[in-house]
Design a protein that fits this description.
alpha+beta, Nuclear Transport Factor 2, Chain: A, eight-stranded antiparallel β-sheet, elongated
Length: about 350
Protein backbone atom coordinates (compact mmCIF):
# COMPACT_ATOMS: atom_id res chain seq x y z
CA UNK A 1 0.00 0.00 0.00
CA UNK A 2 1.34 3.44 -0.93
CA UNK A 3 1.87 6.34 1.47
CA UNK A 4 -0.96 8.23 -0.26
CA UNK A 5 -3.36 5.35 0.39
CA UNK A 6 -2.33 5.16 4.05
CA UNK A 7 -2.96 8.89 4.35
CA UNK A 8 -6.43 8.64 2.80
CA UNK A 9 -7.40 5.89 5.24
CA UNK A 10 -5.98 7.82 8.18
CA UNK A 11 -7.71 11.06 7.19
CA UNK A 12 -11.10 9.47 6.46
CA UNK A 13 -11.22 7.63 9.78
CA UNK A 14 -9.91 10.62 11.69
CA UNK A 15 -12.55 12.97 10.34
CA UNK A 16 -15.35 10.43 10.81
CA UNK A 17 -14.46 9.49 14.39
CA UNK A 18 -12.92 12.75 15.67
CA UNK A 19 -15.81 13.65 17.96
CA UNK A 20 -16.02 10.14 19.41
CA UNK A 21 -12.25 10.02 19.94
CA UNK A 22 -12.37 13.35 21.74
CA UNK A 23 -15.20 12.15 24.00
CA UNK A 24 -13.38 8.90 24.78
CA UNK A 25 -10.15 10.75 25.55
CA UNK A 26 -11.75 13.27 27.91
CA UNK A 27 -13.98 10.82 29.77
CA UNK A 28 -11.23 8.20 29.95
CA UNK A 29 -8.78 10.71 31.40
CA UNK A 30 -11.31 11.74 34.04
CA UNK A 31 -12.02 8.12 35.01
CA UNK A 32 -8.37 7.40 35.75
CA UNK A 33 -8.98 9.19 39.07
CA UNK A 34 -12.67 8.42 39.37
CA UNK A 35 -13.17 8.54 43.15
CA UNK A 36 -11.04 11.60 43.96
CA UNK A 37 -12.46 13.51 40.99
CA UNK A 38 -16.05 12.71 42.04
CA UNK A 39 -15.38 14.06 45.54
CA UNK A 40 -13.61 17.13 44.18
CA UNK A 41 -16.37 17.98 41.70
CA UNK A 42 -19.25 17.30 44.08
CA UNK A 43 -18.15 17.46 47.74
CA UNK A 44 -21.72 18.07 48.90
CA UNK A 45 -22.92 14.86 47.27
CA UNK A 46 -19.92 12.55 47.41
CA UNK A 47 -18.05 13.38 50.63
CA UNK A 48 -19.01 12.00 54.04
CA UNK A 49 -19.73 14.54 56.77
CA UNK A 50 -18.79 11.91 59.40
CA UNK A 51 -21.43 13.25 61.78
CA UNK A 52 -23.21 10.11 62.98
CA UNK A 53 -22.90 6.39 63.77
CA UNK A 54 -21.60 4.07 61.07
CA UNK A 55 -24.41 2.38 59.12
CA UNK A 56 -24.38 -1.05 57.52
CA UNK A 57 -24.57 -1.87 53.82
CA UNK A 58 -28.18 -3.00 54.30
CA UNK A 59 -29.06 0.34 55.88
CA UNK A 60 -27.48 2.15 52.91
CA UNK A 61 -29.61 0.12 50.49
CA UNK A 62 -32.78 0.78 52.50
CA UNK A 63 -32.16 4.53 52.70
CA UNK A 64 -31.46 4.77 48.97
CA UNK A 65 -34.72 2.97 48.25
CA UNK A 66 -36.66 5.36 50.49
CA UNK A 67 -35.04 8.37 48.80
CA UNK A 68 -36.18 7.18 45.36
CA UNK A 69 -39.67 5.63 45.63
CA UNK A 70 -40.49 3.21 42.83
CA UNK A 71 -36.84 2.28 42.30
CA UNK A 72 -35.11 -0.88 43.50
CA UNK A 73 -31.42 -1.20 44.32
CA UNK A 74 -29.40 -3.13 41.76
CA UNK A 75 -25.85 -2.48 42.92
CA UNK A 76 -24.07 -1.01 45.92
CA UNK A 77 -20.49 0.27 45.95
CA UNK A 78 -18.69 0.52 49.28
CA UNK A 79 -16.80 3.72 50.24
CA UNK A 80 -13.41 3.40 48.59
CA UNK A 81 -11.54 5.52 51.11
CA UNK A 82 -11.95 7.62 54.24
CA UNK A 83 -14.37 10.44 53.50
CA UNK A 84 -16.12 8.62 50.62
CA UNK A 85 -19.79 7.60 50.51
CA UNK A 86 -21.77 4.51 49.63
CA UNK A 87 -22.82 4.75 45.97
CA UNK A 88 -26.04 3.01 44.97
CA UNK A 89 -27.41 2.16 41.53
CA UNK A 90 -31.18 1.70 41.24
CA UNK A 91 -33.70 0.86 38.53
CA UNK A 92 -37.48 1.10 38.18
CA UNK A 93 -39.89 -1.33 36.50
CA UNK A 94 -39.39 0.35 33.11
CA UNK A 95 -35.62 -0.09 33.35
CA UNK A 96 -34.85 3.57 34.02
CA UNK A 97 -31.77 4.11 36.15
CA UNK A 98 -31.27 6.33 39.18
CA UNK A 99 -28.44 6.79 41.67
CA UNK A 100 -27.88 7.79 45.27
CA UNK A 101 -24.92 8.53 47.53
CA UNK A 102 -25.34 7.63 51.21
CA UNK A 103 -23.15 8.91 54.02
CA UNK A 104 -21.65 5.91 55.85
CA UNK A 105 -21.56 7.99 59.05
CA UNK A 106 -25.15 8.78 59.99
CA UNK A 107 -26.82 7.49 56.82
CA UNK A 108 -27.86 10.81 55.31
CA UNK A 109 -28.70 10.76 51.61
CA UNK A 110 -26.12 13.14 50.14
CA UNK A 111 -27.52 13.13 46.63
CA UNK A 112 -30.19 11.19 44.72
CA UNK A 113 -31.41 11.45 41.15
CA UNK A 114 -30.70 10.62 37.54
CA UNK A 115 -27.40 9.98 35.82
CA UNK A 116 -26.40 13.60 35.30
CA UNK A 117 -26.76 14.37 38.99
CA UNK A 118 -23.49 12.41 39.25
CA UNK A 119 -20.99 13.81 36.70
CA UNK A 120 -18.32 11.12 37.11
CA UNK A 121 -20.83 8.29 36.81
CA UNK A 122 -22.13 10.03 33.69
CA UNK A 123 -18.56 10.12 32.34
CA UNK A 124 -18.27 6.37 32.98
CA UNK A 125 -21.52 5.60 31.16
CA UNK A 126 -20.52 7.84 28.24
CA UNK A 127 -17.06 6.29 28.03
CA UNK A 128 -18.41 2.75 28.15
CA UNK A 129 -21.63 2.94 26.12
CA UNK A 130 -22.39 6.57 25.26
CA UNK A 131 -25.43 6.17 27.59
CA UNK A 132 -27.10 4.24 24.75
CA UNK A 133 -26.89 0.60 25.83
CA UNK A 134 -25.73 -1.99 23.30
CA UNK A 135 -25.97 0.48 20.42
CA UNK A 136 -23.61 2.82 22.26
CA UNK A 137 -21.25 -0.08 23.01
CA UNK A 138 -21.15 -0.89 19.30
CA UNK A 139 -20.13 2.69 18.49
CA UNK A 140 -17.44 2.60 21.20
CA UNK A 141 -16.15 -0.69 19.77
CA UNK A 142 -16.00 0.83 16.27
CA UNK A 143 -14.20 3.80 17.77
CA UNK A 144 -11.56 1.50 19.27
CA UNK A 145 -11.15 -0.33 15.97
CA UNK A 146 -10.83 2.96 14.12
CA UNK A 147 -8.14 4.12 16.55
CA UNK A 148 -6.16 0.93 15.91
CA UNK A 149 -6.36 1.40 12.15
CA UNK A 150 -5.44 5.07 12.50
CA UNK A 151 -2.40 4.14 14.58
CA UNK A 152 -1.22 1.72 11.90
CA UNK A 153 -2.01 3.99 8.96
CA UNK A 154 -0.51 7.08 10.58
CA UNK A 155 2.70 5.26 11.47
CA UNK A 156 2.92 3.69 8.01
CA UNK A 157 2.45 7.07 6.33
CA UNK A 158 5.12 8.70 8.52
CA UNK A 159 7.72 5.90 8.58
CA UNK A 160 10.97 7.39 7.26
CA UNK A 161 13.53 5.45 5.26
CA UNK A 162 16.30 6.81 7.49
CA UNK A 163 16.92 9.03 10.51
CA UNK A 164 13.58 8.73 12.39
CA UNK A 165 14.69 11.25 15.01
CA UNK A 166 15.11 13.94 12.39
CA UNK A 167 11.73 13.02 10.91
CA UNK A 168 10.12 13.84 14.28
CA UNK A 169 11.63 17.30 14.60
CA UNK A 170 9.31 20.31 14.70
CA UNK A 171 10.48 23.44 12.90
CA UNK A 172 8.98 26.27 14.90
CA UNK A 173 10.01 28.97 12.38
CA UNK A 174 7.68 27.87 9.60
CA UNK A 175 4.06 28.95 9.08
CA UNK A 176 1.67 28.13 11.98
CA UNK A 177 -0.33 25.63 9.91
CA UNK A 178 2.88 23.71 9.16
CA UNK A 179 3.88 23.79 12.83
CA UNK A 180 0.48 22.29 13.66
CA UNK A 181 0.95 19.57 11.04
CA UNK A 182 4.40 18.68 12.38
CA UNK A 183 3.20 18.71 15.98
CA UNK A 184 0.29 16.42 15.07
CA UNK A 185 2.68 14.01 13.37
CA UNK A 186 5.21 13.99 16.20
CA UNK A 187 2.64 13.65 18.97
CA UNK A 188 0.94 10.80 17.13
CA UNK A 189 4.17 8.88 16.59
CA UNK A 190 5.33 9.34 20.19
CA UNK A 191 1.97 8.21 21.58
CA UNK A 192 1.22 5.45 19.05
CA UNK A 193 2.30 2.52 21.23
CA UNK A 194 0.17 3.68 24.16
CA UNK A 195 -2.81 4.47 21.93
CA UNK A 196 -2.56 0.98 20.42
CA UNK A 197 -2.59 -0.59 23.88
CA UNK A 198 -5.53 1.54 25.02
CA UNK A 199 -7.55 0.72 21.89
CA UNK A 200 -6.75 -3.01 22.04
CA UNK A 201 -7.56 -3.39 25.72
CA UNK A 202 -10.68 -1.29 25.33
CA UNK A 203 -11.91 -3.67 22.63
CA UNK A 204 -11.12 -6.69 24.82
CA UNK A 205 -13.21 -5.15 27.59
CA UNK A 206 -16.24 -4.19 25.54
CA UNK A 207 -16.58 -6.96 22.95
CA UNK A 208 -17.54 -9.68 25.49
CA UNK A 209 -20.20 -7.35 26.92
CA UNK A 210 -21.45 -6.54 23.44
CA UNK A 211 -21.73 -10.24 22.61
CA UNK A 212 -23.53 -11.08 25.86
CA UNK A 213 -27.19 -11.56 25.04
CA UNK A 214 -28.40 -12.13 28.59
CA UNK A 215 -30.95 -9.76 30.10
CA UNK A 216 -30.66 -8.15 33.53
CA UNK A 217 -32.33 -10.11 36.31
CA UNK A 218 -35.57 -8.58 37.64
CA UNK A 219 -35.17 -6.08 40.45
CA UNK A 220 -36.30 -7.20 43.90
CA UNK A 221 -36.69 -5.51 47.25
CA UNK A 222 -34.08 -6.96 49.61
CA UNK A 223 -34.51 -6.14 53.33
CA UNK A 224 -31.55 -4.55 55.08
CA UNK A 225 -31.20 -7.49 57.45
CA UNK A 226 -31.06 -10.00 54.58
CA UNK A 227 -28.38 -7.98 52.80
CA UNK A 228 -26.28 -7.69 55.95
CA UNK A 229 -26.61 -11.43 56.67
CA UNK A 230 -25.55 -12.29 53.13
CA UNK A 231 -22.57 -9.95 53.26
CA UNK A 232 -21.48 -11.33 56.64
CA UNK A 233 -21.67 -14.88 55.29
CA UNK A 234 -19.65 -13.93 52.19
CA UNK A 235 -17.05 -12.11 54.29
CA UNK A 236 -16.24 -15.37 56.08
CA UNK A 237 -14.86 -16.73 52.83
CA UNK A 238 -12.36 -13.84 52.53
CA UNK A 239 -12.03 -12.43 56.05
CA UNK A 240 -9.06 -10.20 55.28
CA UNK A 241 -10.57 -8.54 52.20
CA UNK A 242 -12.60 -5.34 52.04
CA UNK A 243 -15.90 -5.03 50.21
CA UNK A 244 -15.84 -3.43 46.78
CA UNK A 245 -19.46 -3.87 45.66
CA UNK A 246 -22.54 -6.06 45.82
CA UNK A 247 -25.01 -6.65 42.98
CA UNK A 248 -28.56 -7.80 43.70
CA UNK A 249 -29.95 -10.09 41.01
CA UNK A 250 -33.25 -11.81 41.61
CA UNK A 251 -32.93 -13.83 44.78
CA UNK A 252 -29.17 -13.64 45.11
CA UNK A 253 -26.28 -11.27 45.65
CA UNK A 254 -23.00 -11.24 43.72
CA UNK A 255 -20.43 -9.82 46.11
CA UNK A 256 -16.95 -8.63 45.15
CA UNK A 257 -14.09 -8.13 47.59
CA UNK A 258 -10.87 -6.29 46.73
CA UNK A 259 -7.99 -8.62 45.87
CA UNK A 260 -4.89 -6.37 45.63
CA UNK A 261 -2.65 -9.41 46.00
CA UNK A 262 -3.47 -10.21 42.34
CA UNK A 263 -3.73 -6.67 40.95
CA UNK A 264 -5.31 -3.30 41.70
CA UNK A 265 -8.58 -4.15 39.93
CA UNK A 266 -8.96 -7.83 40.83
CA UNK A 267 -11.76 -9.15 43.05
CA UNK A 268 -12.68 -12.26 44.99
CA UNK A 269 -16.28 -13.14 44.13
CA UNK A 270 -18.92 -14.75 46.33
CA UNK A 271 -22.50 -15.49 45.29
CA UNK A 272 -25.04 -15.90 48.09
CA UNK A 273 -28.79 -16.32 48.24
CA UNK A 274 -30.78 -13.56 49.91
CA UNK A 275 -33.77 -15.26 51.55
CA UNK A 276 -32.16 -17.98 53.64
CA UNK A 277 -28.55 -17.04 53.02
CA UNK A 278 -26.18 -19.73 51.86
CA UNK A 279 -23.15 -19.62 49.62
CA UNK A 280 -23.72 -20.62 46.01
CA UNK A 281 -20.09 -20.18 44.96
CA UNK A 282 -16.85 -18.52 46.07
CA UNK A 283 -14.11 -17.75 43.55
CA UNK A 284 -10.72 -16.39 44.66
CA UNK A 285 -9.21 -13.82 42.31
CA UNK A 286 -6.28 -16.06 41.39
CA UNK A 287 -8.70 -18.74 40.14
CA UNK A 288 -11.01 -16.42 38.23
CA UNK A 289 -11.12 -16.72 34.46
CA UNK A 290 -12.66 -13.29 33.96
CA UNK A 291 -10.84 -11.57 31.10
CA UNK A 292 -11.56 -8.07 32.41
CA UNK A 293 -9.61 -8.79 35.58
CA UNK A 294 -6.41 -9.06 33.53
CA UNK A 295 -7.19 -6.44 30.89
CA UNK A 296 -8.64 -3.58 32.99
CA UNK A 297 -5.43 -2.93 35.00
CA UNK A 298 -3.60 -2.54 31.67
CA UNK A 299 -6.28 -0.29 30.20
CA UNK A 300 -6.27 1.91 33.33
CA UNK A 301 -2.50 1.92 33.80
CA UNK A 302 -2.56 0.23 37.22
CA UNK A 303 -0.31 -2.54 35.96
CA UNK A 304 2.75 -0.29 36.30
CA UNK A 305 1.84 1.15 39.70
CA UNK A 306 0.95 4.72 40.75
CA UNK A 307 2.76 6.24 37.77
CA UNK A 308 0.50 4.37 35.34
CA UNK A 309 -2.67 6.45 35.61
CA UNK A 310 -0.62 9.68 35.45
CA UNK A 311 1.09 8.44 32.29
CA UNK A 312 -2.21 7.44 30.71
CA UNK A 313 -3.67 10.82 31.59
CA UNK A 314 -0.97 12.37 29.40
CA UNK A 315 -1.83 9.87 26.65
CA UNK A 316 -5.52 10.76 26.95
CA UNK A 317 -4.66 14.46 26.60
CA UNK A 318 -2.49 13.60 23.59
CA UNK A 319 -5.43 11.77 21.99
CA UNK A 320 -7.68 14.76 22.64
CA UNK A 321 -5.11 17.03 21.00
CA UNK A 322 -4.87 14.72 17.98
CA UNK A 323 -8.67 14.52 17.68
CA UNK A 324 -8.85 18.33 17.61
CA UNK A 325 -5.81 19.07 15.47
CA UNK A 326 -6.68 16.56 12.73
CA UNK A 327 -9.94 18.25 11.64
CA UNK A 328 -8.29 21.69 12.00
CA UNK A 329 -5.53 20.57 9.61
CA UNK A 330 -8.11 19.25 7.14
CA UNK A 331 -10.05 22.54 7.33
CA UNK A 332 -6.87 24.55 6.79
CA UNK A 333 -5.90 22.43 3.78
CA UNK A 334 -9.41 22.75 2.30
CA UNK A 335 -9.40 26.51 2.81
CA UNK A 336 -6.02 26.79 1.10
CA UNK A 337 -7.23 24.74 -1.88
CA UNK A 338 -10.28 26.98 -2.20
CA UNK A 339 -8.03 30.06 -2.25
CA UNK A 340 -5.91 28.54 -5.02
CA UNK A 341 -9.03 27.72 -7.06
CA UNK A 342 -10.30 31.30 -6.73
CA UNK A 343 -6.92 32.69 -7.83
CA UNK A 344 -6.77 30.38 -10.84
CA UNK A 345 -10.29 31.33 -11.89
CA UNK A 346 -9.45 35.02 -12.14
Amino acid sequence: MTRAQWLRIHRALGLTMAVFLLVQALTGGLLLYRGPVARWIDPAGMVSRADGPVISAGDAVERAGRALPGYHVMRLFAPESTGATWFVQLRDKEGRAAYASIDPAGGAVRRAGGLFHFPVEAALQIHYQLTAGKAGMAVVALNGLALLIMAVSGLSYWWPKRNPARALAIRWTVAPRLVLRQAHRTLGVVAVAFLTIMASTGLLLILPELADGSRPAPAVVAPATAIDRGLALAQRMFPGSSLRDARIEGGRMIINFHAPERNARAVHRVIVTIGEPHIVSATPADRSGALWMTVLPIHAGNVIGPIGPALLLLVALALAALALSGPIMWWQASAQRRRFVRKDSR
